[in-house]
Amino acid sequence: MSEQKAAAQAVLLEVGLVVDGSGGPSWPGDVLLRGDRILALGAGLRERLPEGLALADVEVVDCRGKVIAPGFIDAHTHDDAIVLRDPWCLPKVSQGITTVVTGNCGISLAPYRTPQSKPPLTLLGAESFRHATMAEYRAAVDATQPALNVAALVGHTTLRFAAMDALDRPASGDELARMEALLDSCMADGAHGMSSGLFYEEAFAAPAEEVTALARVVARHGGVYATHLRSEMQQIIEALHEAGDSAFNAGVPLVISHHKCAGPANWGRTKETLPLIEALAKRQEIAMDVYPYVAGSTVLREDLVDGVIDVLLTWSDPHPEMTGRLVSDIAREWGTTEQEACLRLKPGGACYFQMQEEDVERVIAHPLTMIGSDGLPHDRHPHPRLWGAFPRVFARYWRQRKLFTLEQAVHKMTGMTARNLRIADRGLLRAGTMADVVVFDPETIADTATYDKPHGVSLGVEHVFVNGVRAYRGGGSTDAAEAKVLARAGRMLTRGR
Fold first, then answer.
1. What percent of the chain has pLDDT over 90?
2. What confidence score (pLDDT) does residue 1 get?
3. How many CB atoms are located within 10 Å of the residue 252 CB?
4. Are the CB atoms for 127 and 251 separated by under 8 Å?
5. What is the pLDDT of residues 70-120, one digit of tens each?
6. Quick one: pLDDT at residue 483?
7. 394 neighbors 72 (Cβ within 8 angstroms)
8. CA distance 220 to 211
9. How far is CA 190 from CA 105, 133, 138, 467, 491, in A?
10. Average pLDDT estimate for 241-249
11. Is the pLDDT of residue 182 over 60?
12. Residues 315 and 379 sit within 8 Å (Cβ to Cβ)
């Protein structure tokens, strides 16, 4: 038993501004935690503690001037492997994040064990693919006990790797049947849905019919379908129609991953995409996630290195010494074009400054939009969103730009995400729900991570509780939070221990 758990039977978060995650009005009051649950909410709770609980058994935390909110849910991560390698998860808990949604962009660790004959999925690290089933992955997370809860999606690309001998074509009937069986097993083991990354080479050859067939498996289990669209550039309208139709025909809710209009030729086109998404939302359940930056980050691709936008190298296997530099500067030093430099730097990753701020603001303010970091924890010089996305939303888009209310900002990180991703017992402050709670200073919460110095602990996050255990106290991690893999709403699984 940890010192914190031995010291008190309960924690009273007292006299804070309670923002409950619903999007409704905030109110001044207290939140009482006992065990892994929220025991009570109200005002003056120290004078009316539940029977059997004495004040001497309660740790009282003065929250005057602070916000008490549900723990933030990161709607879009690539944390599948890092929760096993670095269970303290400081980049996330220091932002107030208590649950991460993994398996995005078509890439999940399960269900796939890497054979030496197949190429790696570099976003997560090839050596990480050793979980042939979702049950194996859940067991690995439970054994590691990271400081975060995990809600896992199954990657369409991972299914293709597991079932196909070549990915430059549609799946055959037998291969599709194999993928459907694997996905069915993963959903039965508690996966929240499926993701796709049709933009990437490993999945680009998959037709919409392949995706729809798999999405029908997800629908039978009450899950969701999240997609990195086939195009976020010139063909984005066609890609949105494809995603909408695939989900609609399968009867499954759709999440559009990190919605953006990428590339200077597409700047301003959120004026087209957002009305289309609203029109789709009239016939089907649909949501988006977004990160609060004008740069994206992914693997090095010469088609994204256009000589117009800045491209910041985040890692390179053949030239690690170039990490953290602009590709344009490297090309100038080498006497090559930027695309030639890109080819010499591969395999690698980069930040692409491919969005317009006005588009980011339109998307982040939209009522269908959740917050996701999309951070890449395995990059040597990661995008600052890995450490700063959630506090940045408060600092830049709530306090500075006033694009939404405090209650709406919290809702985009909590209740909305829990509802859209089918995450049970989280996202709202309610008596009886799981005690995932963050206390932060609304006047000072801010990101410190930058493109030059991406490893920066955010300001203003004072206490983070995961399943009732303090996982972070402004400045560093504390107790192991005994987190777990979460099952879908209505199908909460318990640990066998």
1. 89
2. 31
3. 25
4. no
5. 999 999 999 999 999 999 999 999 999 999 999 999 999 999 988 765 655
6. 62
7. no
8. 15
9. 19, 11, 9, 19, 8
10. 98
11. yes
12. yes
Q: Could you report the per-residue pLDDT of 426-468, keeping only the tens digit for each?
A: 999 999 999 999 999 999 999 999 999 999 999 999 999 999 9
Residue type, 76: H
Residue pair 131/109 in contact (Cβ under 8 Å)? The answer is yes
DSSP 265-314: GGTTTHHHHHHHHHHHHTTS-EEEEE-SSS-EEEE--TTT--SSS-EEEE
Sequence-separated (6 or more) residues with CB below 8 Å from residue 337: 307, 331
Question: What CA–CA distance (Å, rounded) separates 146 from 137?
Answer: 13
| pLDDT at site 479 | 53
Distance (Å, rounded) from C-alpha 44 to C-alpha 63?
13
The region, left, alpha or beta by phi > 0 then psi within -120 to 50, assigned to residue 219 is: alpha
Beta carbons of 363 and 369 less than 8 angstroms apart: yes
Has residue 475 got a pLDDT over 80? no
Name the burial class of residue 51, with classes exposed (0-12), middle (13-18) and buried (19+) by CB atoms within 10 angstroms of its CB: exposed
What is the identity of the amino acid at 249? N
How far, rounded to the nearest angstrom, does the alpha carbon of residue 269 sit from its chain's CA centroid? 24
Rounded-to-integer distance, Cα 415 and Cα 392, Å: 19
Q: What is the DSSP string of 332-388?
A: HHHTS-HHHHHHHH-SEEEEE----HHHHHHHHHSTTEEE-----TT-SS--THHHH
**CA-wise closest residue to 488 among 101, 97, 71:** 101
Q: Residues 44-64: what's their mean pLDDT?
A: 94
Q: Which helix (H) or strand (E) holds 177?
A: helix 173-188
Q: Around 384, how many Cα atoms within 13 Å sit in the side-chain half-sphere?
A: 22
CA gap 481, 305 in Å, rounded: 42
**Residue 42 φ then ψ, to 5°:** 160, -165
Cβ 270 vs Cβ 369: under 8 Å: no
Range 247-254 average pLDDT: 98
What is the sign of the dihedral through the CA atoms of 123, 126, 131 and 137?
Answer: negative
| Helix, strand, coil in percent for the chain, rounding step 5 | 35, 25, 45
